[in-house]
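idk why but the lab printer keeps eating my pages so im just putting this in chat instead. protein + 3-hydroxybutanoyl-coenzyme A:
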Amino acid sequence: MVRQEVDGDVAVLTLANPPVNALGAALRASLDEALAQVIADQAIRAIVLAAEGKVFVGGADISEFGKPQHPPSLPDVLERLDASPKPVVAAIGGAALGGGLELAMACHGRIAAPSAKIGLPEIKLGIIPGAGGTQRLPRLIGPDAAFAMMVTGEPVSAEKAAALGIVDSVVLGDLVAAARTRALEIADSGTLPRVRDRSDKLTPEAREKFEALAADAVKRDPDATNVHALARAVRAGLEQDFDTAVATERAEFRALVEDPRSQALRYAFFAEREAARVPGLPKDTPRRPIRTAAVIGAGTMGGGIAMCFANAGIPVTVIETEGGALARGLDRVKGLYAGSAKRGSITEAQRDERVGRITGALGLEQAGEADIVIEAAFEDMGVKREIFSKLDTIAKPGAILASNTSYLDVNAIAAVTNRPQDVLGLHFFSPANVMRLVEVVRAEKTAPDVLATALDLGKRLNKLPVTVGVCFGFVGNRMLERRSRAGERLLLEGALPHEIDAAVTAFGFRMGPFAMGDLAGLDIGWRSRKDFGGRAPVADSLAEQGRFGQKTGRGFYLYPDGARTGTRDPEVEALIARVAAEHGVARRSFTPDEIVARLMYPMVNEGARILEEGIAARPGDIDTIWINGYNWPAWRGGPMHWADTVGLKTVAEALSRFASETGDDSQEPAPLLTRLAAEGGRFAGLKNA
Ligand code: 3HC
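predcted complex ->
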């Protein structure tokens, strides 16, 4: 696990624990032993700590959290490192994250390759750094800058890390050689620069700034237990001696590991990675080369999808039927890139390169050379079938033909071609250039290499592809429909739009369903219900009155003078009461907890059906979709994980009650949910389909 090489009077210790050199028990033990040996070796004057692979160290081993710890602990290893009488210099060749950076900061010098990424992302896992990170980073760069980095968890580039003072220098070329030179320099100087001994950055001004940042962060997310803990830990470093403060940090860290929020976030971390593995699709499935792409449709979705390709360096042709629509679409894309360059999120050169990768063209024939064609036309089966039957004659042999449908039957789309094996769905989320989630819809005849290529492509596009099967609305929209239906029903039964939205935002969503509907436009759901069937008596009545939401100044709420936040409208509340009376629904009041249960349990129930039908391979895939496509609060781990924490018996019993209260039999618990509830089981205990 740790390779030892001796080069003159320098020992090079190389961590080798693929894929990310996570500091699990075996690696810790091996490192501790190697350090003890080289420190004791009279012939060694200095030590270099390097790592194999693209990542220096991806942190502590997250899968060990919450389980009995095997010694030595990471803080123990770092103590040995810190106390070494011989200089140790970290050669950071790739990402040094979490425990990885903590390890590097316990060294006496740090040299980074230009590609290195440096950060303490623990906050994203619901915890805080637990091996001295909250103490050493403030000593290196000041408590204010350190808190700012730790509270977002975003890593910085090597260059930025050098500018901040986290690493000593950035070196092109032989990193280990540079680290070796630095280690010998330190040895020659006769003094060991230990981060723990530094206090020059702990100035009263920096402290004041830190306190302001901490107050802000806590105010922004008062329920985030770890943000409070982070502030306390950094403050401890300013008030206590180093060892006491490290112990304070460790105690905070340990408590947070048991926090349900952190458990959910760690679950989501692994669920997201597991989603990349599709049961029954071997790792060595061949891939088709994707060098060029075509997108059919220059609308918001088509343009956004084209941007994903351009951003990833893949030339893409955007195809329209008519010059005006094409020009408008391309202008919109250029405008978005110009905005990004103006904000500084890309350089002007990047803007020009990306714009240059997108070519507009008229007529489907222009898709003939593309390795993948993504249709992003109207959500209408007739339109899609026509496009695919034409593409069948136009696209080159072996090209992948994808539909960006959000609901429709991809089997039926594939059936109009003579190559259904090459067809699949790629359901991007809006705005497609921003949202990471892509539902990859595997149709009945989709060939394994087409699926494997689409999943790889998703990663190349910097997306999070999750494989789903064919059904109306796939996983995300199918479950969303349940929530929408339950929301309408709640309105009739007496809960008001603002009460429902408030319950949903208190649950952790950024927006409630009605504010969201107003933002997206109530005409969208109205039209789609007209096309696909389904009734939403309140939303439909509003749309019939031309109340389409924010864009018309009126929807579920009022938006006077272009306001972005709606206010209550007595007219809407009267309309709801009228519709309820027409439907003979008795009205009462609901508590926020009741509202959440009424909205979310039916989604969980639909998730159970989705699992039974094999539309999703595992509960974690559903949760990954909801966290990344629908803004489900990650710290609640997705609907299926959340249901496990509520208890499936509670969920199933409540659903039966809802079914009898509303007369809607589809609310009855699905067989899988009934079985798990009876067994005292959990979704998390299910084996992969
Ligand atoms: N612990 C355990 N497993 C880890 C891990 C970690 N810290 N980091 C990554 N892995 C695993 C993944 O689960 C995945 O496993 P799989 O192949 O079986 O699915 C595999 O390593 C590869 O991971 P990715 O697919 O994410 O690989 P990438 O190359 O895309 O990204 C990375 C590499 C940037 C290092 C990314 O994995 C990452 O962000 N890891 C987590 C970083 C992190 O949060 N570190 C802090 C950990 S907590 C900590 O250190 C506490 C300390 O303060 C005491």
